[in-house]
Amino acid sequence: MESSTTPLVSVLMITYNHGPYLAQALDSILAQERNFSLEIVVGEDCSPDNTRAIVLDYQRRYPATIRPLLPEHNIGAMNNQIQVMEACRGRYVAILEGDDYWVDPHKLQRQVDYLESHPAAALVFTDAALVDEQGQMLEENFVPAQYRHHFTLSELLQEYCPPALTVLYRNVVPTMPPVFRQIANGDYALFALIGQHGTLDYLPGVTAHYRKHGGGVWSAQNEEKRFRMNLATKLAMLHYFGPQYRPDILPAVNWYYTQIGQLLWQQKRWKEFLLLYAQFASLSVSTTNRELSAFTWKLLTGRLSKA
């Protein structure tokens, strides 16, 4: 099945401290029934557990399929993702982190067939389920019903990020632009960049399980940190995609500024609040954003502290 020629599909996998889960993730890729060549590019970021040993064991067992990238020191999740992304050689790229796994052995074949027959589509995604550390079901489908449809770039920027572990995309983004290299939501930025090349299409059916556990980067963040991380992503998108897409991005930017501002105000963190307000005001002037006046009115009338 494998050959020395360029694979049709690359699987982009980053892993860190995933010793208890990594074998299941890799096995779920190797179990895919397909008629095309495949490579698994694994970025192992100097885990303190046995994750690297597992990667090396799988490389020994599947040398034609598994290509490990093994930095000598920890480079962080975003740098790891970019390094692996740049190393993927396939016409198409799938994403699976080392603590998640696929449950449909026809996932990749079905998605490859779709992209081959739908040239206007740049990415295809599916449903996924949410499970706990032991793989017990928490939520049979955590893709909300209103987002089970095809997306344009405009819709993606204002609405929803497809679950990364379900996607297959055309390898049309060679690297991550500098503006996106410091954000935490790298998948969302990547999908937006891909959205410049075509639609992001939905296929029904659960193909993967997303594992919720204490060691997960996203699940470990508190509410304010998540708001700030999402705001940073939206601001980067506002900078990168320019005035054409302001109407799509600004509502989310306004919402995150409001939510963070309310938290700071309620906690009487006045210096941080004033700094955030100044940033919001500067952005609003440069983008002719009208939401600042509504925010200020709530502040002056005492409604901000009651929100």
Please describe what this structure looks like.
This protein is α/β, with parallel strands linked by helices and 307 residues long. It folds into two domains: 9-211, Spore Coat Polysaccharide Biosynthesis Protein SpsA, Chain A, CATH 3.90.550.10; 223-300. The chain is 41% helix and 18% strand. It contains ten helices and nine strands. The protein has helices at 22-30, 51-61, 77-87, 107-117, 153-158, 186-194, 223-241, 246-266, 270-287, 291-300; strands spanning 9-15, 38-44, 66-69, 92-95, 101-102, 121-131, 137-139, 168-170, 199-211. Strands 1, 2, 3, 4, 5, 6, 7, 8 and 9 form a nine-stranded mixed beta sheet that branches. The longest helix has 21 residues, at 246-266. It is globular. The protein starts with 8 loop residues before the first strand and ends in a 7-residue tail after the last helix.
- End-to-end Cα distance, whole Å, is 59 Å
Broad shape: globular
What's the domain count? 2
CATH classification, class level of the largest domain: Alpha Beta
Pairing-aware structural class of the strands and helices? alpha/beta
By CATH, the architecture of the largest domain is named: Alpha-Beta Complex
Q: Provide mean pLDDT, rounded.
A: 92
Give me the number of helical elements.
10
Q: Mind telling me the CATH superfamily name of the largest domain?
A: Spore Coat Polysaccharide Biosynthesis Protein SpsA, Chain A
Radius of gyration: 21 Å
Which bin fits the share of residues in helices? 40-55%
Poorly predicted tracts of residues = none
Which fold name corresponds to the CATH topology of the largest domain? Spore Coat Polysaccharide Biosynthesis Protein SpsA, Chain A
The major pleated sheet works out as: 9 strands, mixed
Number of strands: 9
Instruction: Give me the oligomer status.
Output: single chain
